[in-house]
Amino acid sequence: MINCRDINAKVRVVKVESFDNYSTVKLRTSRMDKRDDTWVNSTFSFVRFLADAHKNISDIEDALKGYDKFENGDAMKGGLPIVLKSLSISNESYEKDGERVFPQNYQLIVWAWKFPEDENSSSNMDRPPVVEDFGNDDDDDEIPF
Question: Is the domain defined by 2-116 classed in CATH 2.40.50?
Answer without folding.
Answer: yes
